[in-house]
Amino acid sequence: MCASFRSEEMCLAQLFLQSGSAYDCISELGEMGLVEFRDLNPSVSPFQRRFVSEIKRCEEMERILGYLLREIRKANLAVPEPEVSPVAPAPKHVLEIMEQLQRLEVELSEVARNKEKLQRNLLELTEYTHMLRITHTFMHSRSRHEALGPQYEEFPSLDAESVAGCTGMQRLGAKLGFISGLIQRVKMEAFERMLWRVCKGYTILSYAEVDESLADLDTGEISKNVVFLISFWGDQIGQKVQKICDCYHCHLYPHPETDEERADVMDSLRTRIQDLNNVLHRTEDYLKQVLHKASESAHSWVLQVKKMKAIYHILNLCSFDVTNKCLIAEVWCPVNDLTNLRRALEEGSRKGDATVPSFVNRIPSKDTPPTLLRSNKFTSGFQSIVEAYGVGDYREASPAPYTIITFPFLFAVMFGDLGHGLVMTLFALWMVLTEKSHKRKHSGNEIWTMFFEGRYIILMMGLFSIYTGLIYNDCFSKSINIFGSGWNVNAMFTEQQWTNQTLQTSALLTLDPNISGVFTGPYPLGIDPIWNMAVNRLTFLNSYKMKMSVIIGVVHMSFGVVLSVFNYLHFRQKFKLYLLFLPELLFLLCLFGYLVFMIFYKWLAFSVQDSRTAPSILIHFISMFLMQGNATTPLYPGQMGLQVFLVAMALLCVPVLLLGKPLYLYWLHHGSKSLGVHRVCGYERVRRLSEDDLSPSIVHDEEEGLDDHPGRDCSPKEFDFGDVFLHQAIHTIEFCLGCISNTASYLRLWALSLAHAQLSEVLWAMVLRVALRINSRLGVLVLAPVFSLFAILTVSILLIMEGLSAFLHALRLHWVEFQNKFYSGTGVKFAPFDFSLLPSVFEQDGLL
Fold first, then answer.
1. According to the model, what pLDDT value does residue 646 have?
2. CA-to-CA distance for 551 and 547, rounded, in angstroms?
3. In sequence order, which residues have a C-beta less than 8 Å from that of residue 91 and are 6 or more positions away?
4. Beta bridge partner(s), residue 203
5. With 0-12 CB in 10 A as exposed, 13-18 as middle and 19+ as buried, what is 438?
6. What tens digit of pLDDT does each residue of 711-737 get?
7. What is the C-alpha to C-alpha distance for residues 352 and 418, in angstroms, rounded to an integer?
8. Over 80: is that where the pLDDT of 702 sits?
9. What are phi and psi of 139, to 5 degrees?
10. At what angle do helices 400-415 and 802-812 cross, to 10 degrees?
11. Is residue 185 part of a domain?
């Protein structure tokens, strides 16, 4: 459990891997995900490293598998996932997998080419059939024109002048030529216009649309086509027509001259189409059989290739020791996992049949280790919220354990509604109970994935919203009368001699708590339900929630300041306890802690009898800074003296914050000349701890080694007082001004809570209340659609939009107001070599 409060201790280790078992050792480390490898060949080009040829072989297998998966997707076949993830194949089995994939690629590509060729031939024959059928109608129409005249024309495309011109040319003995084919319907208008302009009217164009939609031979798109028949006179016109048809990518087919030839061609086409359909069906069945067999092993092949390629990438990061003929790797490893690391190397050496086992050697280092914070499925969401701000420094206190409670609580303060919290809890609970089935589906919807990954965050937010909803006594903008009211209306009725007529004629009646018996006592839990009917309900809730926001904000910020103590103690920076922590805490508590004290004092000191004379806390707080004690009535004796003392203490904390740390470091630097070597070494440790560009954990490791090396050079280095002072001045200004702005920022808890409650009340009054006011039987019929509308608006506006708004504001309160008090977030996240974390090119392309 302690690992969640602070990052784990890391160490730098060297792995000595024998050449024969290096592959198996890296494979074992990838399955366990223990270490992060460092690149020992930064100056070597990726194309000049030792295992480039093996990586190219893996990329070739990835290309083949990509082609295979695309063909499987085209065939609408599923790729079953293996129950157990396969391990990386042994190097001696890689060539077998490569040959198997290549044979499969050749077979599939050949079958696919044959299928595509058959489909193209079938499409051409189908087009030819449509062309012959429709042009036959054109020719019979022209024959009727010659026999009966143009007044009996049936096709609008064959005008009388064109038919008459054709008949005149035939009488003169001119030989007509014919070109027939198909063209896309969208090109027909431009095609006809081009024929008319180029051929000067020496062509006759007849066309009709094909009823069936056909696929394009080149693009494969389904489109409407038009069959055309062009009659022309002369070879020169024929050549122009041919060029125009080629320009518009027309599919041209030979045109039979006689009806007998046409009939023979039609019979031949029917026979060939039937034969092609039979062959095509058999080809498709064979292709599906091959793809179905390949799909059973496709996922395993993909995982094996991914792991194999990752292993060779890691081996390229290692350096080769020519003397010992072994590979040397440097890794960051958690200290607690060193035993597992040695066990993994032993297992890899056993699988590789190595005569000399691989081993690990821990080495010292001055480099900054990466940050490792282990998490489970419950804490991973909250850890992601923290790391979205920044990864923590090595061994720095983590805000994640506290965020698990404070984040949903601050959200619930803004979102507090019993009904809405219950709906959110049920939704999150459904995701939690069915998480195994959702993980197996691998949904590609990013929004759903985001909700699912944060299911435990939503669950906690819903549970806390139920709690705050009970405190606010707010359920879909209505109060729940669980324990009865603390106000006795009968006592007021008896005291002031109210009658039924008084109740009916008076729009507003005031319950005076100063009368004995009217106010029987505070409500056991939350707010009394009678406030839901009060005219001054909004005024009361505003005052209540505003003061509550200030109290929560000051407590939250003070807790953040206190957490900085754990960092100072862990990194042995005790001087920061006196020069940073105490002045910061005193400055915050003397000003805004006193504001919280006045809020509680006013609640406790003023009763019902003198509640109207209670002074304004805000006026007192302003007068505290202006030193105007006579302007307001004091809350308690000696208030003015205490306020002057607190303001003076806060002002004295500012120069301590501004000058304390720089002067202390300056004194250590200049006092080391007369205090000896021990003081110099002490200064050196403190100086390094004060620099923000180095991780304090590294310096902590160096401290532990100073005593072990008494002869180490501890001569003081150059100290720049201006840089230290400038950095501390920025920190002081940021903290002092931030205390004011951050406290005001917590008022968003009050503002969003008020906005959520008012939106809920408006939605109830303007939607659901309309149907509930209908007293007739029609109200039952109206209630169902109105309630559906109410539910849709509640989910979309109050749960999703308002919930997202409250989520973002709670996120800001943690990042800016809370975490900046103790959390720097400038570290580097530990990225272990883990097969389960490696992205796959197939997953990126959406093939899996």
1. 93
2. 6
3. 23
4. 232
5. middle
6. 344 444 567 888 889 999 999 999 999
7. 62
8. no
9. -65, -40
10. 140
11. yes
CA atoms within 13 A on the CB side of 206: 25
Residue 519 DSSP code: B
**pTM here?**
0.79
Tens of pLDDT, residue by residue over 639-665, are: 888 999 999 999 999 999 999 999 998
Helix residue ranges per DSSP H, 390-454: 400-415, 418-433, 435-441, 446-453
> What value does the CA radius of gyration of the chain take, rounded to a whole number of Å?
42
Task: State phi, psi for 36 to the nearest 5 degrees.
Answer: -115, 125
- How far apart CA 385 and CA 67 sit, in angstroms, is 39
Distance CA 674, CA 682 (A): 13
Q: What is the pLDDT of residue 123?
A: 87
Q: Which domain holds residue 160?
A: 126-277
In the predicted model, is pLDDT for residue 709 greater than 60? no
Which amino acid appears at position 803 of this protein?
A: G
Q: Give the residue, 711 or 629, on which the prediction is more confident.
A: 629
217 inside domain: yes
Q: Is the pLDDT of residue 408 over 90?
A: yes
Structure-block tokens of residue 643: 């306020």
pLDDT at 407 over 90: yes
Cα torsion 626, 627, 632, 635: sign: positive
Mean pLDDT of 486-512: 67
Separation in Å, CA 768 to CA 94, 477, 753, 797: 68, 12, 22, 15
Q: Which long-range contacts (CB under 8 A, 24 or more apart) does 690-696 make?
A: 690/661, 690/665, 690/724, 692/727, 692/824, 694/368, 695/368, 695/369, 695/393, 695/394, 695/827, 696/393, 696/395, 696/396, 696/567, 696/571, 696/573
Give the DSSP letter of residue 398. Answer: P
Strand partners, 16: 328, 359
- What is the biggest distance separating any 2 CA atoms in the chain, rounded to whole angstroms? 130
Which H, E and C letters describe 713-778, residue by residue? CCCCCCCCHHHHHHHHHHHHHHHHHHHHHHHHHCCHHHHHHHHHHHHHHHHHHHHHHHHHCCCCCH
Residue labelled with tokens 């297992």 = 347
- Out of 259-273, 625-639, 701-715, give the one with best mean pLDDT: 259-273
- Helix and strand element counts for the chain (H, E): 30, 11
Q: Is position 269 within any domain?
A: yes
Which string of DSSP letters, residue by residue, matches 88-135? PPPHHHHHHHHHHHHHHHHHHHHHHHHHHHHHHHHHHHHHHHHHHHHH
State phi, psi for 479 to the nearest 5 degrees.
Answer: -90, 155
What is the pLDDT at residue 626? Answer: 83
pLDDT band at 203 (very low <50, low <70, confident <90, very high): confident
- Using the structure block, give the residue that is written with the tokens 């041209």: 252
Q: What is the mean pLDDT of the chain?
A: 83
3-state secondary structure 25-91: HHHHHHHHCCCEECCCCCCCCHHHCCCHHHHHHHHHHHHHHHHHHHHHHHCCCCCCCCCCCCCCCCH
Q: Is the model more confident about 518 or about 492?
A: 518
| Neighbour-count burial of 148, counting CB atoms closer than 10 A to its CB (0-12 exposed, 13-18 middle, 19+ buried) | exposed
Written as six digits, the tokens of 810 are 């709670």
- Count: domains in the chain: 1
Percentages helix, strand, coil for the chain (3-state, rounded to 5) are: 65, 10, 25
How far is it, in rounded angstroms, from Cα 667 to Cα 688?
Answer: 15
pLDDT at 498: 64
CA–CA gap between residue 296 and residue 80 (Å, rounded): 6
In whole angstroms, what is the distance from residue 755 CA to residue 119 CA? 64
In the numeric block, which tokens belong to residue 141?
Answer: 């129409």
Structure tokens at 249: 């990518």
Q: What is the pLDDT of residues 551-572, one digit of tens each?
A: 999 999 999 999 999 999 999 9
Whether residue 211 is contained in a domain is answered as yes
